[in-house]
Amino acid sequence: MRLLLIEDTFDVAEAISVQLGRSGIACDLAPDIANARGFLDVQAYDVIVLDINLPDGPGTGLLKELRAKGDRTPVLMLTAEFSVDERVSSLNSGADDYLVKPFDQRELEARIRALYRRDRIDKSEEVKCGSLTFNASARIAHTDAGPLNLTRRELSLLELFVRNRGKTISKERLYEGLFSFDDTEVSMNALELYVARLRKKLTGSSIRIETQRGLGYKLEVDA
Q1: Same domain (yes/no): 154, 110
Q2: Number of structural domains, the chain?
């Protein structure tokens, strides 16, 4: 999953980014609306977390822009306001959810994952692919042979494959789903390494990751 966090308080944004990164969520940070527009012009996101009070305008203004352009990316608003009017205004502007500051990081991550799952074509939390069972909410996967011992990025990679099973996914799309703009030192070779590791851990199951030369990778399920 790739997320855009638009938050002007640096220490808050950094803490959120670090925690989400540990959970396998690639997080790009924008301190204001202008920077957020720059990110959104070049990158698609699975979820946007948007502070309601930003240095160059209200977050609801950016939200209305997105919705007016037909962008339906799930948006979670962060607000320090407790008033019902403020929260209703956010929802009426097109927000999918809101969270009042201060909040528990675990609740934020749970709400982000809930929005992400809600936006997926496959609505079920637990997805079955041949002998593989993947639970997006619990962040676990197992085959008929038992549980798979996967790192957070291997789980994120597996989720991308499972959600797009049977489809060819470009290396660029997989890379975007795993790494943020801050991961500038990470090369495409790192993605290939993660694919190789995941392939090895799936050995013996009824699913396989096929290389589509010049195109990317595809998750196939044996009949």
Answers
A1: no
A2: 2
> Do residues 97 and 147 share a domain?
no
Report the alpha-carbon distance of residue 116 to residue 107 in Å, rounded.
Answer: 14
* Whole-prediction pTM: 0.62
Phi/psi for 15 (5° steps) reads -65, -40
The predicted structure's pLDDT at residue 125: 66
**Distance (Å, rounded) from C-alpha 38 to C-alpha 58?**
17
Predicted pLDDT of residue 178: 83
Distance of CA 141 to the CA centre of its chain: 18
Structure tokens at 122: 């496959």
Residue 219, token pair as written in the block: 């998750």
User: According to DSSP H, which parts of 23-104 are helical?
Assistant: 33-42, 59-68, 84-92
- What domain range is 29 assigned to? 2-119
CATH at 191: 1.10.10.10
Structural domain ending residue among the three candidates 76, 101, 119: 119
The candidate with the shortest Cα–Cα distance to 102, out of 17, 9, 32, is 9
pLDDT confidence of residue 196: 94
Q: What pLDDT, on a 0 to 100 scale, did the predictor assign at position 37? A: 95
**Mean pLDDT, contiguous 10-residue spans, the chain (223 residues):** 93 92 90 95 91 92 90 89 69 85 90 82 69 83 90 89 86 83 76 93 91 91 78
| Strand-by-strand arrangement of the 97-100 sheet | 26-30, 2-6, 47-51, 75-79, 97-100
